[in-house]
Design goal:
This protein is an alpha/beta fold and about 425 residues long. The protein contains 11 helices and 21 strands. Strands 8, 9, 10, 11, 12, 13, 14 and 15 form an 8-stranded antiparallel β-sheet that branches. A 5-stranded parallel β-sheet has the order 4-3-5-6-7. Strands 20-19-18-21 form a 4-stranded mixed β-sheet, covered by helices on one side. It is globular, with a radius of gyration of 22 Å.
């Protein structure tokens, strides 16, 4: 079993909680009076660092939202007031992908960047990566943090990192083969896209000694049918991971793969709250993930509403880690769920149904109104040579699994976009 930090990853839960509390208290004292965003936020709530006497006291602090951080940067640009130190002490800059609007700018100090690397060290070690591996980063290396942090994690593990920026998909496949890459880091969508390119160009994927693929940036590696497809085309184990630019890389799948991801509890505190009431839910119940990171003092995030829906367990994993796990990984996002004909639908649930059809190469889902009723259209591209009549079987399967019948459309090859970073396959258009 490969660990990044065997001591903290196997701590009894009582000791783990004590470690979290000590880190939380130290961070709060460091921020007080230096970080204007949180100092003013806590003062308005009538709280100060000395009020944090137990982990239960964390719930007394106000929640933080992305909207708040965006408003703060708009008012105090370019980086806002959530900076604990003078800007001269910051050495890295990244930003959110901006898929939902203006990107959030996120600078890091050297200590904060080392913390990022430690978090990704957990992610990679969980996938069994060691210093003997050659990790290919199929990533453009722009301002989106993406696999920049994975690169730092690979460095801290001592693994060889091979950058894939500045290359198209065929060139990336050739480079992976030439260097003998054993680990691929990319979005789940791009792993499937690379396999599609290999099939179209006659490239033999077995010429790459791949043993693991590690994914981030979007759901997919936690969707059973998508995971199975990635593992099939690459003949390698597929590992899920979750994180966010503003929060950090917070959870990962271990080599036992118990059907979920481990939270890095030495670096994060998680609360699972009912999105409607804001109250904690019981273990095993679905709720919104609220995170506090503990090692990124330069750009701290405290009680942050991630919008991600999870279900937790603290049952010890066979891998030996004692950390909380998210069963099924990130189930979906609170703002992604749609209701169609009275049925609550998460995009990942529909993806899991579609990916079980080997004939489907790419798809797009659109929810829109028809005569004041919500309807779902599913557009699919089929693999070369696939029987077009499979769309009827797809419609039947969706009907049986969702309890309503979407309209399934067969599109010609290459009609749908291909993605390298976050894929946008689920669209909601409820305009009049």
């Amino acid at each position: 079993m490969t660990y990044f930090d065997p001591t903290t990853e196997t701590l009894p839960r009582e000791q783990l909680a004590a470690l979290q509390l000590s880190k939380l208290q130290a961070m709060a004292k460091e921020l007080w009076g230096k970080n204007r965003f949180y100092t003013e936020k806590w003062k308005r709530a009538g709280l100060q660092p000395d009020d944090l006497k137990s982990l239960d006291d964390l719930a007394r602090l106000p929640l933080t939202t992305k909207h708040e951080l965006m408003e703060d940067q708009a008012a105090h640009g370019p980086f806002g007031n959530n900076l604990t130190y003078p800007i001269e002490q910051y050495v890295r800059f990244h930003q959110t992908s901006g898929t939902t609007g203006v990107p959030l700018k996120v600078p890091d100090t050297e200590a904060g960047w080392q913390w990022w690397g430690r978090c990704w060290g957990h992610v990679l070690a969980g996938a069994g990566v060691t210093a003997a591996d050659r990790i290919f980063m199929a990533f453009s290396f722009g301002p989106f943090v993406g696999f920049w942090a994975a690169t730092e994690g690979a460095r801290q593990l001592g693994a060889l990192m091979v950058p894939g920026g500045g290359r198209d998909s065929p060139q990336r496949l050739e480079l992976m083969r030439d260097v003998g890459a054993t680990v691929l880091c990319c979005t789940p969508t791009y792993a499937l896209r690379l396999a599609e390119v290999a099939r179209e160009t006659g490239f033999d994927l077995s010429s790459i000694p791949m043993k693991s693929t590690v994914h981030a940036g979007e759901p997919g590696a936690n969707v059973p049918a998508t995971k199975a497809r990635i593992e099939d085309v690459w003949s390698a184990k597929c590992f899920d991971h979750a994180g966010a630019t503003e929060v950090g890389a917070h959870s990962f799948e271990c080599s036992v793969q118990p059907g979920g991801t481990h939270l890095i509890e030495s670096e994060f505190i998680a609360e699972i709250l009912d999105p409607a009431t804001g109250l904690p839910v019981a273990e095993g119940e679905r709720g919104e993930l609220v995170l506090t990171n503990l090692g990124r003092w330069g750009f701290p995030i405290i009680r942050y509403k991630t919008g991600d829906i999870v279900r937790t367990t603290t049952q010890r994993c066979e891998c030996g880690r004692t950390s909380m796990r998210f069963e099924g990984g990130i189930i979906g996002r609170a703002d992604d769920m749609v209701t169609v004909r009275g049925v609550n639908v998460f995009p990942a649930g529909v993806e899991n149904i579609l990916r079980k059809f080997a004939e489907i190469d790419e798809f797009r889902i659109t929810v829109h109104k028809v005569r004041q009723m919500d309807e779902m259209d599913v557009e699919v591209e089929l693999c070369e040579g696939a029987d077009p009549n499979v769309v009827h079987a797809i419609a039947e399967r969706l009907d049986s699994m969702l309890s309503f019948r979407p309209r399934v459309h067969h599109l010609p090859r290459n009609a749908l976009p291909r993605f390298e970073l976050k894929a946008k396959r689920f669209h909601v258009n409820r305009g009049a």
